[in-house]
Each structure stands twice: as structure tokens, then as C-alpha cells.
TrEMBL record, chain A:
Functional summary from the UniProt entry: Part of the ABC transporter complex MalEFGK involved in maltose/maltodextrin import. Probably responsible for the translocation of the substrate across the membrane.
Listed transmembrane segments: 26-44, 80-102, 139-163, 202-226, 238-258, 288-317, 338-358, 402-422
One Gene Ontology term from the biological process aspect of the record: maltodextrin transmembrane transport
Localization of this protein: Cell membrane
Predominant subcellular localization, coarse grouping: membrane
Keywords: Cell membrane, Membrane, Sugar transport, Transmembrane, Transmembrane helix, Transport
Family: Belongs to the binding-protein-dependent transport system permease family. MalFG subfamily.
GO cellular component: maltose transport complex
Domain of life where this protein originates: Bacteria
InterPro entries assigned to the protein according to its UniProt record, in alphabetical order: MetI-like (IPR000515), MetI-like_sf (IPR035906)
GO molecular function, one term: ABC-type maltose transporter activity
Membrane topology listed for this record: Multi-pass membrane protein
Protein name from the UniProt record: Maltose/maltodextrin transport system permease protein
Length: 437, 280
């Protein structure tokens, strides 16, 4: 008996597609052969450079050199470009290896079929097989590639940055090179007084903010929803539409408008206060008042969402629960405490946690409303209302302290990921999804 | 008598509270709309309702040399519509696959989608910038569409999947027995049944590009390629002439389409928000 499977697998291991040709899968074999030859050619030319670039991050920055007797600026290695190009090449190489492995396995299986006397699938049958039995995987390929290159690659890049010294003022390509420094950025963040002071200050405010923002909008939403859904309130639909307006206006607009409304000198709010004979308040310029302002404005933005959610839950609470409570002589408050509130909390708990995680990263609100200001003197590039994310933004795009920003980004990410994964793993859509139907 | 009295007091108090909240909700919107019709440039105004009305700020938006509002509107519309279409298709593909098929690594794929969606977006901007630069896509609208659409499955898949999970699988199985292919099931059963959710997804994917100014500002380098959000941001931050009423007019025009869509589609929004996190 001929050992088709071994021969096919070995041929495929030598070059992609050869095994398929041996198995007389002509079209598939030729396609794979072309892909294989081109990929090999590409990787032979580039893989070495990529690894060299990733490891050394370049050996010489741009420098002055004598060309034909004239001193000229000569472009050197650009560490960051080297890092990213290396990364992309490595990702492609990983994909190539996976494809190569699949190709060997495929040739092996087809060989096995031949030993049993079965003709392997022809090209049409292969396509049919892919679309009927590997449907999910083939459907997912396109989105997966998009995510791989536009999300995963940038994230890996960012994580790598945290272990380099890519930062203003001394390590910015193309003038200078960047080097790997290991965990030094992280130790600096905790050990250097100026950084750790800012970090823990901003972190504390971020957590206070996230808790307050979530609680105020959530219970505000419950309150408003209950107000509207009360027995005897008329025009429920009209109230609903009015109260939904803050949610319907894009935050970009509403927050910039709010910034002007709370303007200390000319804003209408202080104008009204002065009209009633009061002093205008430093809404956005005093550290404490600025914190109050962001919480209040966040209530304006966030309550409508909670209200909509709670209203949809209220309609699902069975009426007979209330009737039973009435028979037992429960007061309105008791009914709220024993029936309404637990029902609302139970159904919206996952949303509550999602909102909490979202508030930790609530970039828009802080950035558009206060831009993190007022500035705090002994902070490193941060202000009194800066959250970790907005501080990150300033460090990256304004100050070019990339490595520090990356380290902080990793920390934020770990905080949020813990919450969200814990939350998600508890929901039914993850746990018992096959039982729903 | 006592109960009636108490009821009346309760209702009156509720109405008063509701009116106060309603004023709070409407006031900023009303203020900015009225300010956009106010003559002059300044933020300060003696009263809420201006003494005279003018359309000159709206005219200035479209006539002025430094403000290419018409071009920006078309740019934004183009980017938003294309990323909405491509993004929605990608979200549908991924969520259909993870909702209806069981394959190796599926639960992990779901967790990965969840986790990746939580990375602070602009942290990846440096990498994206260099990547787009090496693809020669900087300062193009194609780059914006690609990046927005490629990111869509991260935000939308879990919500969409939550919704698709509620469509009984017996429907698919019946169709399968009748000889339908997977693609036919997707087109004839899943698509029609998930129309409300697709609308919701489309809306959120449309709004994202419409208001994004961070990434757009980084990629779009020349003024005639800008989007509305970038233009507005520039108007706010160019300090040499603070022109509040012009800002007001621009804000009204940018917010109007989105606000109308939201108000008309509010039912869908609630369904969309709850679908992702239904505890049943």
C-alpha cells in the first residue's frame, strides 16, 4: 500500500501546494503554490531586517556626514518605523506559518483519503465545504483581518512602547534613537515623586468621578422614570420626548455649549445668579467647583439614558405583584422598596457596571468640558479634573511622552478589563446562551 | 378626603419637579439655537430671546473663505454613510457567525472582542498614523472609512449577538431541513428579523464618524478634506477671533440631523441598549 499521506505531507512541507498537486487537486495546488512562492520570496527578503529592526530599534539616528566635501544631514534609522514595520512583518509571518501548517495538514488528510480509495474533493467541492461546514470561520475572516491590523497591531505596538524610552525631550526619532529599557518606565511611574504624585492624584479622582457619575446618573434616571410613570401623570409621551433631548444632541455639541454656558464671565448661568444678586461662581476655574460642574453636566448628559432603561424595565414588572402588595396593605414607599427597586436593580445591574467602566474612560465629557483644567501646579501635565484617559491624551498628543503614556494606558486597560470581563462572564448571554431557546 | 388631598399634593409636586427638569433639559438647546440667530459675535447677551433675528451667521458658514462648511458637510456625510454601511455589514457577519455556529475558540473570541473594545482608542493612534502613512493613505477619506469600519465589530458584535440569540434557532433548523444554505438562511430569515437592531447599529455607526474629531484631526491634514467635527473644533480653538454666534450656528447644523434621528428612533435605542446586556 502506498503511503500517500506521508508523501503528500512532506511535499507540502517542502513547498506550499506541492502535496495538493500530488493529490491531484490541481486548482487548489496551483493557487497554494503561487501564494507559497510569493510569500517565501517576501519573507526571505524581509524577515531578517524586521527582526534586526525590532531587536536593535536602529543603530544610528540622523546625523551629519560629509558627502562630496559638503557636510549634510543624512537620514538614519527611524526607530519607531522600524518597530512598526517589524511588527507588521512578524504578524504576517505568523499568519503565513498558520497557513503553512493548515496546508500540510490538508495534504496529509487528502492523502489519507486516497489511501482509503476515496477521491479527494475537487475545487468546487472544496468551496462548497468551506461555505457550508466552515461557514462561521470563513464569515469571520474579513472582520478578523480588519481587527488584527487596525486594532490588535496598534495595541501590541502600544504595549511595546511602554518598554522603550520613546519620549520627549531626548528620545524622539528621527533625530534620536529609541531603546528598549525594560520595566524602567513602570518603576519611574511609581518611584519618581513627581510622576507618582500625579498618578495617584489622578487615579483617586478618576475613581471618585466614576463612582459619583455612575450613581448620580443612575438614581437620577430611576427618579425621573418613576416621576413620569406615576399613576395620574398625564402626557407621559411628551415628557419622555422632552427629557430625551439631552441624549439626542451629540455630546460634541452639547458639551461645547455647556462650556460656554458655565463661562464665569459672560455665561448665562452666572448672569442669572448675578441677576438675583448673588456672586457668580467660578464654575470651570476653581478646582473644587470644576469637579462639581463636571458631575452636574454629566447628570444632564447621562440621566436620559438611565431613564429610558428604567422605563423599559418598569413596563415588564408584573402588575399582580403590586396588587398582592395592595391586599397586604403596603404603602407606596414599601411597594417601591420591596418590588420596584429590586426589580430595576436586578435587570439593570450589568448596564450599571458597563456604565461604571465607561465613566472611568469618559474622555469626551472631561476633554470637551474642562479639558482637565484648572491646572494643578505640582502635577505633571495634568489638571484638577483630568481623568487617567485625558491625562493620557495630553501625554501622548501634546507632550509626546509616549512611553509613560503607554504604561498608564496598560494600567487603565487592566482596571477596566477586569471589571468588564467579570461583568460579562456573569451575564446570561455568555453563560447559558444555549439554554435561552 | 385625606387621600384625595394627598394625591393632589403629590401630583402637583411631581408636575413642578418635571417642569423644572424639563426646563433644565431644553434650556441649553434653546439657548444655542437662539444665539445662532443673534446679531453680533459675543457670548454675552442681555436676555435669552434676542431683540432681533438674523440669518447672517448661517450665510457666513457657507460663504466665508476660511469656512468650507458645505464641503465639510459633504465629506462628513460621505465618510459617515460609507463607514455605516461597511461597518454594519461587518458587525452582522461577526455576530451571525458567533451567534449561530459553534466552533473551536468561540467563547475566547467573544472575550477577545470584549477586551479589545476597551482599549483607550487614541492609544492606537500613533500606530495607525504610521500604518496609514506607509500605506499612503494619510489625508484621505478612504483611511477614515477603513478605520471606522474595521473598528465597528469591536463595539457592535456583542450587542448584535445578544439580539440574534433571541431569534429562535428552530427557524434556522426548519429552513436547513428544507435545503436552505447558510447564506440563504442569513438573507431570508436573519436579516428581515433583525431589522430594528440593524437600524440601531447603523445609527450608532453613523453618529460615530459624524462627531469624531480626535482621529479625524490627526488623519485629515488639509482644510478641504476636513469633516464637520474637525472644522468645529478648529473654530472653537482658534483664539484670534472668538466668534460665539458663528459657533452656535455651526453647532445647530451639526446637531440637527443626529438629534432628529435619535428622537424619531428612540424606541430602537432602548431595545439596542438592553439587548447587549439582557439578564432576562
Amino acid at each position: 500500500m502506498r503511503q500517500h499521506r506521508i508523501t503528500a505531507a512532506v511535499l507540502s512541507a517542502i513547498c506550499m501546494g506541492l502535496g495538493q498537486l500530488y493529490n491531484r487537486q490541481w486548482i487548489k495546488g496551483v493557487i497554494l503554490l503561487i501564494v507559497g512562492v510569493f510569500s517565501l520570496y517576501y519573507f526571505i527578503n524581509n524577515l531578517g531586517d524586521a527582526i534586526w529592526g525590532m531587536v536593535t530599534l536602529g543603530e544610528q539616528g540622523s546625523h551629519l556626514e560629509k558627502v562630496n566635501g559638503l557636510t549634510q544631514m543624512v537620514a538614519g534609522d527611524h526607530s519607531i518605523n522600524l518597530l512598526i514595520e517589524g511588527l507588521i512583518t512578524l504578524i504576517m509571518f505568523a499568519l503565513f506559518l498558520i497557513g503553512y501548517y493548515a496546508n500540510i495538514k490538508n495534504a496529509y488528510n487528502a492523502g489519507k483519503l486516497r489511501e482509503k480509495g476515496v477521491t479527494p474533493n475537487n475545487f468546487r467541492q472544496t468551496l462548497y465545504y468551506i461555505f457550508e461546514w466552515k461557514f462561521a470561520q470563513s464569515f469571520l475572516t474579513l472582520p478578523a483581518i480588519g481587527i488584527l491590523f487596525f486594532t490588535v497591531m496598534p495595541i501590541i505596538f502600544m504595549v511595546l512602547l511602554a518598554f522603550t524610552n520613546y519620549s520627549a525631550p531626548n528620545n524622539l526619532p528621527p533625530a534620536n534613537l529609541v531603546d528598549w529599557v525594560g520595566f524602567k518606565t513602570f518603576t519611574n511611574l511609581v518611584a519618581l515623586k513627581s510622576w507618582s504624585h500625579t498618578f495617584f492624584g489622578v487615579l483617586t479622582w478618576t475613581i471618585i468621578w466614576a463612582v459619583l457619575a455612575t450613581v448620580t446618573t443612575y438614581f437620577g434616571g430611576v427618579l425621573v422614570a418613576l416621576l413620569i410613570q406615576q399613576k395620574g401623570i398625564r402626557f407621559k409621551g411628551v415628557w419622555r420626548v422632552i427629557l430625551i433631548i439631552p441624549y439626542a444632541i451629540p455630546q460634541l455639541i452639547s458639551l461645547l455649549v455647556m462650556r460656554n454656558m458655565f463661562n464665569g464671565q459672560f455665561g448665562p448661568i452666572n448672569q442669572y445668579l448675578r441677576y438675583f444678586g448673588l456672586e457668580g461662581l467660578p464654575w470651570l476655574t476653581d478646582p473644587v467647583w470644576a469637579k462639581v460642574t463636571v458631575i452636574v453636566v454629566n447628570m444632564w448628559v447621562g440621566i436620559p439614558v438611565s431613564m429610558l432603561l428604567v422605563m423599559s424595565v418598569l413596563t415588564t414588572i408584573p402588575k399582580d405583584l403590586y396588587e398582592a402588595a395592595d391586599v397586604d396593605g403596603a404603602t407606596g414607599f414599601q411597594k417601591f422598596k420591596i418590588i420596584t427597586l429590586p426589580m430595576i436593580l436586578f435587570s439593570t445591574a450589568p448596564v450599571l457596571i458597563t456604565q461604571f467602566a465607561g465613566n472611568i474612560n469618559n474622555f469626551n465629557l472631561i476633554f470637551l468640558l474642562t479639558n482637565g483644567n484648572p491646572v494643578v501646579g505640582d502635577y505633571q501635565y495634568a489638571g484638577a479634573t483630568d481623568l487617567l484617559v485625558t491625562w493620557l491624551y495630553k501625554l501622548t498628543l501634546d507632550q509626546q511622552r509616549y512611553s509613560m503614556a503607554s504604561a498608564i494606558g496598560i494600567i487603565i486597560f487592566m482596571i477596566i478589563a477586569t471589571f468588564s470581563i467579570y461583568n460579562y462572564r456573569r451575564t446570561r448571554s455568555f453563560k447559558e446562551e444555549d439554554m435561552i431557546q | 378626603m385625606g387621600i384625595k388631598m394627598r394625591n393632589a399634593i403629590r401630583l402637583t409636586a411631581s408636575y413642578i419637579t418635571l417642569v423644572i427638569i424639563a426646563i433644565g433639559c431644553i434650556y441649553p438647546a434653546l439657548w444655542i439655537v437662539l444665539a445662532s440667530f443673534r446679531p453680533g459675535k459675543s457670548l454675552y447677551s442681555k436676555s435669552l430671546i434676542p431683540e432681533s433675528f438674523t440669518l447672517s451667521h448661517y450665510k457666513e458658514l457657507f460663504m466665508s473663505q476660511s469656512f468650507l462648511f458645505g464641503t465639510w458637510y459633504m465629506n462628513t456625510l460621505k465618510i459617515a454613510v460609507f463607514s455605516m454601511i461597511i461597518g454594519t455589514i461587518l458587525v452582522l457577519l461577526t455576530s451571525y457567525a458567533v451567534s449561530r455556529f459553534r466552533f473551536k475558540g468561540r467563547q475566547n473570541a467573544l472575550s477577545v472582542i470584549l477586551v479589545l473594545g476597551m482599549f483607550p482608542g487614541f492609544m492606537s493612534m500613533i500606530a495607525l498614523y504610521i500604518l496609514l502613512n506607509s500605506l499612503d493613505l494619510l489625508n484621505t477619506h478612504a483611511a477614515m472609512i477603513i478605520v471606522y469600519a474595521a473598528g465597528a465589530p469591536l463595539g457592535g458584535t456583542l450587542i448584535m449577538k445578544g439580539f440574534l440569540d433571541t431569534i429562535p434557532r428552530s427557524l434556522d433548523e426548519a429552513a436547513k431541513i428544507d435545503g436552505a444554505t447558510n447564506f440563504q438562511i442569513f438573507r431570508k430569515i436573519i436579516l428581515p428579523l433583525s431589522k430594528p437592531m440593524i437600524t440601531y447599529m447603523g445609527l450608532t455607526l453613523f453618529v460615530g464618524p459624524w462627531v469624531d474629531f480626535i482621529f479625524a484631526r490627526l488623519v485629515l491634514r488639509t482644510k478641504e478634506n476636513w469633516t464637520l467635527a474637525v472644522g468645529l473644533w478648529d473654530l472653537v480653538n482658534s483664539t484670534q477671533d472668538s466668534n460665539f454666534t458663528l459657533f452656535a450656528a455651526a453647532s445647530v447644523l451639526i446637531a440637527l440631523p443626529i438629534t432628529l434621528l435619535f428622537v424619531f428612533l428612540q424606541r430602537l435605542l432602548v431595545d439596542g441598549m438592553t439587548a447587549g446586556a439582557s439578564k432576562g
